[in-house]
Amino acid sequence: MEAQAVHDRLAAKFGARIAEFQADQLQPWTVVASEAIAEVAAFMKDAPDLAFDNLMCLGAVDYAVVKDAEPRMELVYHLYSYTHRHLHVLKVMLPRDGARVPSVEGVWGVANWHEREAFDMFGIGFTGHSDLRRILLPDDWEGHPLRKDWVDPEFYNGMHVRPTQQMAERAMAGEKIGVGPFDFTPFNAHVDDE
User: Is the CB of residue 133 less than 8 Å from the CB of residue 125?
Assistant: First the structure.
């Protein structure tokens, strides 16, 4: 099914909760109202003529500064149908602060890890998720490092996280520092004696 036909099917079923369509993209996409994403996802999987049985990827984007628009977070759902061999992309726009959206884990089980990653890296909450906790960073990590307003902490549990000035200067001078599995930087050589 062509992307326009997928969008038309969604617009007919969900009306105003389908907000926008961009057909002239490499992967055409439809914007879905945040509160409707789980319902739209279930329909797209269960409708025989759509049969989007695969959530290939769920990604997040932080648009902290947008010309002529409000700052926002965006969730991007890449869907594929093995039955019909067609794909479609859904987007959900969220406010940057307190971003929350219904989970699609009940539709596609793989969303469990995708949503946990979006939570971990961007701070987006997923209502109804079975186990919403960090997946890449330690449980006691503070903040969400893929947000545009993220600032690396100096230390985490007593370890340097941000490169020191000395390390940065060595790297800028061309020294290969920790770029391969067998490279070795002497223990605390980058930390000034204090």
Answer: no
User: Quick check: 119 and 112 in contact, CB under 8 A?
Assistant: no
Separation between Cα atoms, residue 75 and residue 61, nearest integer Å: 7
Output the pTM of the full model: 0.84
Model confidence pLDDT, tens digit, residues 12-25: 999 999 999 999 98
**Which one of 3.40.50.11810, 3.50.50.60, 1.10.580.10, 3.30.460.80 gives the CATH number of domain 3-144?**
3.30.460.80
DSSP E strands: which ranges in the chain? 18-22, 29-32, 54-63, 72-81, 86-94, 100-102, 125-127, 155-156, 159-160
Asked whether the predicted pLDDT for residue 181 surpasses 70, the reply is no
